[in-house]
Structures are given as C-alpha cells and as structure tokens.
Design a protein that fits this description.
By secondary structure, the chain is α/β, with parallel strands linked by helices. It contains three helices and five strands. Helix 1 links the parallel strand 1 and strand 2. It is globular, with a radius of gyration of 13 Å.
C-alpha cells in the first residue's frame, strides 16, 4: 500500500489535492492511503509514530511554517525511510529555493493535475 501525505494549511487545497490523488490512484489501480496534515506539528506527530509515508505533497508557503524548512527537518531527523517530497506552491519564485533540500518534484498548485 502506498501511503501519501498532503501537508498544507489551506483546507480547500487539501480537499482538492486529495480528490485529484484519489482519482489518479483509482485510474492506475494502486492501493493507497491518503493522509492530510494542516501543520508541521500534525505532520511530525505522524512521522514520529510507527507508520511511514512513501510520498509527501508539501506546501512551501504556509502561514506559520515553511515547507522547505520542514523538508530540511525531515532530512535531519534521520528517518530510516523518509518520504519522497513533492513541493507544491502558488509561487513560482520558489522553484530555485527547493534545491537546498532533497525532493522529487516541484509543481505549481494550478498545474497539479
């Protein structure tokens, strides 16, 4: 089972992203579990538990947190199997900033589909 997380403080985007991911996984017939996190605290509480995430869609600009800094913290936590990170944002000016941390992809929210 593929475990996918979405971390964003925008509830509307969480819902939209979840729907797009559910449709995608249904189309390719992959068993999955999608989890939503609206803050760094919720995400790290989960990551410190016994379950792992395979993939994390991480917003860069959140009201109280910065996704790039969260990704750095995930790197330095030394998780045995850290999630692959897909940065999502409304701001294209972050495209070069994400290269300061390991990530798999960068996508504008408007182009997520």
């Amino acid at each position: 089972m593929l475990k996918v997380g979405i971390c964003d403080d925008n509830q509307a985007f969480l819902i939209s992203c979840r729907r797009k991911l559910e449709q995608f996984f249904q189309n390719i017939e992959v068993d999955n579990k999608i989890l939503e996190f609206s803050s760094k605290k919720e995400l790290f509480d989960f990551l410190k538990g016994s379950e792992l995430l395979n993939l994390l869609f991480l917003d860069i600009e959140m009201e109280e947190d910065n996704g790039i800094e969260i990704a750095k913290q995930i790197e330095f936590q030394g998780f045995s199997e850290p999630p692959e990170i897909v940065f999502v944002t409304n701001y294209p000016q972050y495209c070069s900033d994400v290269y300061r941390v390991n990530h798999s992809f960068f996508v504008l929210k408007s182009e997520l589909e």
